[in-house]
Design brief:
245 residues, alpha+beta, Alpha-Beta Plaits, 4 strands, flat
Length: 245
């Protein structure tokens, strides 16, 4: 007798696998229901135990200690404040509060008494008659000789001295280092430094800096021209400072 496909009952057939799946699902569902029921029983039991234990005991009442909250120590310690034993504090405390008040303003003015009502003013005496004037003979003024004043000759005005400036381009430790730096600068920036001359200025800055030699290029007439040259040199990454020399 031939078997129809999908309905066989042999080992490992499709029907057997479907039955095993259904059995596993049933077992897992039963285990879940049992666990849920057990947890519910435990919760009911714990609730009943808590109610019984709470009903048989009185609640605990927390009270404060009968003693004081703060107690001053016998030796407080802390930071010692100096000059507590000076007598100036005792003198200030013993000084009277109401002392003499210093008067800064002048005393008030006393008003003059008012004139009495009905008083008569004494009449002024009549003026004395004027004496006749005697005409004096006319005298012609004496002509004075013309006197000419000679003023001292003023010295000629000297022309104003034009201020000169120099460009400080470096400050080095030795005179030779300044000369080497000046040669390099003249070679690289001949268009700006061709008309200027080198001046070396020694400056002692004291310890710990010591002695420095300043590289001064000049002279330059006028602050405006000196600042223009400095600005052109700074565009070429050359440090420059305008000084009056």
């Amino acid at each position: 007798m031939a078997r129809s496909p999908g309905t066989g009952t042999g080992r490992g057939g499709p029907g057997e696998r479907g039955g095993m799946r259904w059995l596993r699902k049933s077992i897992s569902g039963a285990v879940g229901i049992v666990a849920l029921a057990a947890s519910g029983v435990l919760m009911v039991h714990a609730y009943s135990e808590g109610r019984s234990s709470a009903s048989g005991r009185t609640p605990v009442l927390i009270k404060a200690d009968p003693g004081p909250f703060k107690v001053k120590p016998d030796s407080p310690g802390g930071r010692a404040v100096p000059d507590r034993d000076k007598e100036i504090y005792d003198r200030i405390a013993a000084a009277p509060l109401g002392g003499s008040v210093e008067r800064l303003l002048p005393p008030p003015e006393v008003p003059l008494p008012l004139p009495k009502v009905g008083s008569t003013v004494a009449p002024e005496p009549p003026a004395a008659p004027s004496e006749p004037t005697v005409s004096e003979p006319e005298t012609k003024p004496v002509e004075k000789a013309a006197i000419t004043k000679t003023e001292p000759a003023r010295p000629p005005r000297q022309p104003a001295v034009e201020e000169t400036y120099r460009l400080q381009l470096a400050a080095l430790r030795s005179h030779a280092a300044v000369q080497e730096a000046w040669k390099r600068l003249q070679k690289r920036h001949r268009g700006l430094l061709a008309r200027l001359r080198l001046t070396v200025e020694k400056k002692d800055l004291g310890p710990p800096k010591g002695v420095y030699y300043r590289l001064l290029a000049g002279p330059v007439s006028g602050m405006k021209e000196a600042r223009r040259l400095c600005a052109d040199l700074e565009k070429r990454n050359v440090g420059c400072l305008v000084v009056r020399r």
